[in-house]
Here is the input.
Amino acid sequence: PKVLLADNGQYWAEEFEAMYTDSTYSLGNKPLFVLTSLRNDYPQSLGDSVRNELIQQKAKQQDRIAALSSNSKHVVTTKSPHEIHLTEPELVINAVMEVINSVKTGQPLK
Here is the structure.
């Protein structure tokens, strides 16, 4: 995929989609920790079926990101909104520590 430029992220979804659909793209066994919030904060006005479909799509996309590495771990929370680092900092700290440990020891993520 193209290198993501430091911009407003307008094209990031397209870049990530390209990674998902390119069956040759892989991170190998590099440690990859994916933290996902599946808290359903979509507007009630959308209706339950649309809101639930959006959450299911997000979950599927995040699973696809985790599948980019054979050494990945995917943790899901429903307590936090998008800003997991603000509401559940221990999840982020633990994720960083696990990746550091995996890199240092060569062991897979646990």
